[in-house]
Amino acid sequence: MIALLALGCTACAGSRELALGDYRETHGPGVVLWTAKHLRLLPGQAFEYDMSSDDLASGKNGAGTYQRQGHTLELIFNGQPLVRASTVRLHSLPTASDSVRLTFAVRQADAWDVLQPAAGVSVVVRDQQGHPKAQVQTDSAGWAEVLLPRAWYPCTLSVSSIGYQPLQQDAPPSSTAYQVSLQPSAGRLYDAGSRLEFKVVRQTSSQLVLRQGAEKIILEKAL
Questions:
Q1: Which of 136, 128, 72 is nearest to 102 (CA)?
Q2: C-alpha pair distances (Å), 171 with each of 74, 102, 119, 136, 148
Q3: Beta-strand runs (E) in the chain
């Protein structure tokens, strides 16, 4: 009977592993200054954790392994950054004989990794010595266009925005439409060996609720 009771108490403590998936913090209405926490739980008790903020200097991220003892969840960082490279898709456009037309539709990932039209992104064309030849910025729809005279070739182009991974390439020989997706820069890292501790309040099939000190953190599981 004693052995059965002990086994029952162990089951009450819950599994040492949490359900795998992407968990993202939700906020109620009226939040002005905020942070958004993103916890990705991977096989083998591995994790990726990102805390982004509307104050770019305050964001931190890292990866590692976690331990769970009862209701305590501890993240142990390995010092490796979470860097997701910006990407681009290209489509050919009709080309004139004396110039090359480049169009840019730029989106950037928000704190939820949702791509949104990116206004104010710089598109710069440089010659082989690195001197700027042309510079434009995307409008409110994330759109920009630049016309390159053939005399400028060879040249390079870059697409950049503060807080995001820049994209740099040689300018194409013919008119091209660019679809650019900018990903956040790595930001500050949690040092190797550093730890974060949370209390697991509740976990359901769609939600993970944690507490860190006085702060209650509600993380919704991405579908």
A1: 136
A2: 48, 9, 22, 15, 9
A3: 21-25, 35-42, 46-53, 60-69, 72-77, 87-92, 99-109, 115-117, 122-127, 132-137, 143-149, 155-160, 167-170, 176-182, 188-189, 195-203, 207-212, 215-221
Q: Which domains does the chain have, with CATH numbers?
A: 2-82+190-221 (2.40.128), 87-182 (2.60.40.10)
Low-confidence ranges of the chain (pLDDT < 50): 1-14, 33
Burial 127-152 (b: 16+ CB within 10 A, else e): eeeeeebbebebeeebbbebebeeeb
Tokens at 205, concatenated: 């099939």
Render pLDDT for 94-137 as a digit per residue (tens, 0 to 9): 988 999 999 999 999 765 667 899 999 999 999 999 999 999 99
**Distance, CA of 192 to CA of 161 (rounded, Å):** 29
CB contact burial 55-89 (16+ within 10 A = b; e otherwise): eeeebbbbbbebebeeeebebbbeeeebeeebeee
pLDDT score at 7: 36
Cα–Cα nearest to 51, from 188, 166, 162 = 188
108: tokens are 């950037």
The reported pLDDT for the residue numbered 15 is 55
Look at residue 92 in the predicted model and tell me its pLDDT. 96
Query: Using CA atoms, how far apart are residues 165 and 185, in angstroms rounded to an integer?
Result: 5
